[in-house]
Amino acid sequence: MSDYKQCSRCNEVATTNSRFCVQCGHSTFTDLAANVAERISDSENPTTLFLRIESSRLIIASILSGGLYIFYWLYITWKQLAKETNDQHFPIWHALTWAVPFYQLTRLHHHATVIQDLASRAGVPTTLNAGTVVALGFASFGIGLASLFTFHPVLSFVLPVMDITLTTTIIVWNQGALNAYWVTRYGENLESAPIEKAEGLIVLFGISSLAWIFILT
Questions:
Q1: From CA 108, how far away is CA 112, in angstroms rounded?
Q2: What is the pLDDT of residue 75?
Q3: pLDDT higher at 195 or 86
Q4: Domain residues for 185?
């Protein structure tokens, strides 16, 4: 199993030509553990890639989480994209930048640009535009900020709904282009990504937060 190695810090599997771990950024690697090597060997023929995320799943998760799902989406897709770009990616830090005012927009622009460029190079027709995605992100930031300083009962409901709508639009639009790229790139070997624990937890946290806000009001 000489084509792969394992990060000595977090055990993330990487190809032999990788200089940095896509999960934690560490630069020291070890040989694959026996059980990991066996699992990779068993999965390679044929290779089934669990990458696609359906729009219905994104919409439901984004609404139920109160818009917090964008953190998970930025994380999981940035992790997936690392294998396509062969660049150094830090998916956790990348996702957390959504909480940093204005800097979040530069990272969102880069995220959308990577997807747009991959789709274009693969000959995938897409309406995705990184500039428009940033405009949606800026609008989401502005509405989210305004919702913190309003005490009008109607606006207190309408503004968060608008914010969730914008973040959901960002996710679905980008993922639509990415799904089309995955299909073109991997065809019949492509399957839907499984629901991970982190995904379920962030949705559960969002539901709990919305329920608590409803009780308090």
A1: 6
A2: 97
A3: 195
A4: 46-216
